[in-house]
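pipeline: protein-struct stage 2 | run 1193 | Beta-N-acetylglucosaminidase
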Amino acid sequence: MRGHGIAAATVAALVTLATPGCTAASDQARAPAAPPPGASTPARTAAPAPEPTADAPSPTPSYALSTAPRTIPAVREHVPARGPGWKPAAEARVVVAPGDKAALADEGRLLAGELRMGYAESAEPGPGDVHLSLGAKGSTPAESYTLDVKDGRVRITGPDEAGVFYGTRTLKQAVGSAGSAPEGTVRDGPAEPQRGLNLDIARKHFTPDWIKDRLREMADLKLNQLGLHFSDDQAFRIESESHPEVVSTPHLTKAQVRDITALAARLHITVVPEIDSPGHLGAVLRAHPDLQLRNAQGRAVKGAVDIANPASAKLIDELLREYQPLFPGGAWHLGADEYQALVVRDPEASFPQLATAARQRYGANARVQDLATGWLNDRADTVRPSGKALKAWNDGFFAGGVAKAADDIQVEYWTGKEIGARPPLEYLREGRKLVNLNDEYLYYVLGEPNQFTYPTGQRIYEQWTPLVLRGSTPVPARYADQILGGRLAVWADLSGAQTQDQVAAGIRLPLAALSQKVWDARTPTLPWTGFRSLADRLDPP
């Protein structure tokens, strides 16, 4: 899925590799195309042309070589052609073959509504129609597609539903940016498999309609993951039957969550839930103060459960089991960041009960970090039977311990600033898969506390790539296959600093810039001013 080859040498002169702003050279200054056999050659002198007769055929139109459609993210490859292109017409339809109806009806109906066209299930597309179809599974990389504009018709094919869907997004944007789709062939697909937005709905309540609006925005940008961090010190924001006592007001009902995940599925977006533990559990601990971690002096530690107490694990596992069916997507975030027992100088002296439990479980040389690693692995064991991919924040993985985090847990890398946090190369050298949430580029923290500043689309667009995991220096390109993509993260540290509408406006351009760089990490050729102008045309502020 990391790219597509360019066209064969025989058509190399016609290929446009369409990173942002890259278009085929215009042929308008070239000699006109040769007329078809039997057509008269246009005069090259000033002599007057003969008067047309009633029976004379109309002259064959001449078209410049097409240029790539202007979209966000930009298409990765466009083979230009001469022709009028395609635009929606009232009598035209979006057509899905009967054999693909079960898979592509949603995509077809959505596009038809967006372009104000009819929808039909037919094996024979007619003049002006858009034909959606599935190709052989595995024939091209996952989420890829081909979009052909020829003879007044559009054909979109892909090896899976997501690929066809992304082809419809390209067609929609081409029409939105220029009024029509250019003649020729687009071959396109993402560089990274994970692309999206992380949303802190624990510290700030976001309404279901607002979240669904973000899903639609993400879908047009070909983003495919929405992380929902719904439990933190401030609040626990989703209805629970197993532990209603931990739930805050306001919160999302399970019916609302099902509505959100159903829309996400139709838009080929995976919703990734996160119950952060063993830290960031203040809302849970208000209802269960007996599970609170205390230091050697008896002082409570904010947000932290006592991981030496079996009752702590029992409660969190009950919540994990309850919510797994609510989120049918294929990933789960276990949290594991900022456990306050591990940010002090001497965890073993400060928390002797944790040190004792660590030695009892892992032997005489074990430390508190080993007990925390065991907690992470145990929660992974609770979720793993569901088949979901497992994730945890990078500062929940420790070096030099007796216990080791399970190999199948993806590292969500956000910071190198925390005490004990390791640089990305340490994880990569261990062979781990990483997802990029670099807090210097991709953290939108409400109120800008702790020296955070709101990210800009321009900085992401011009400076960041998935290889830039920490700070502004990329890791070596040989590790590219271990980096699974990236997400922009909204954190509501000072929840009242912005309204929902202000958050939506603030992340619009950063999200668009992220979508470009996770779809195609190559340096864009469209300058930022052009990219921003295109973004404003496609999604007005």
